[in-house]
Amino acid sequence: MKEVISTPQAPRAIGPYSQAIRAGGFVFLSGQIALDAATGYIVEGGVTQQTARIMENLKAVLEAAGSSLDKVVKTTVYLKSMDDFGKMNEIYGHFFTENPPARSTVEAARLPRDVRVEIDAIAIAP
87 is in which domain, residue-wise? Predict the structure, then answer.
């Protein structure tokens, strides 16, 4: 059985997918980009500002599912350029200060709306 998770506190899905799905004891979050939920626009600035917005978006979806960043077990980070790894990693680390999840980081040729970073996550469901 699966349950669709949705919250107005994070950007609505811009295609035929859900913000997250709860199934099998986990919450599977779709990739988030740096969209502001209130305006629908990409946040101004570079990878630092985009990573911070993405992490806030992930946090909002997790909270809607009854989970939290502390329960994230795996993330995948997609970067437009690996040159941005250090800046992304610094902001990412502020959100996962203890027992960080497993993570993969890859460079992608192109991301939605030409953003610099996209992140998806898997967390333990409540």
Answer: 2-124
Q: Which tokens belong to 53?
A: 């917005």
What is the Cα–Cα distance from 104 to 9, expressed in whole angstroms? 26
Q: Are strands 72-79 and 117-124 parallel, antiparallel or unpaired?
A: antiparallel
DSSP structure string for 46-83: SHHHHHHHHHHHHHHHHHHTT--GGGEEEEEEEES-GG
CATH number at residue 99: 3.30.1330.40
Task: Give pTM, 2 decimals.
Answer: 0.96
Please say whether the beta carbons of 8 and 20 come within 8 A: no
pLDDT at 76: 98
**How much is the average pLDDT of 4-18?**
94
Structurally, the chain folds into a number of domains equal to: 1
From 19, 126, 10, select the one nearest 71 (Cα to Cα).
126
CA-wise closest residue to 114 among 38, 53, 46? 46
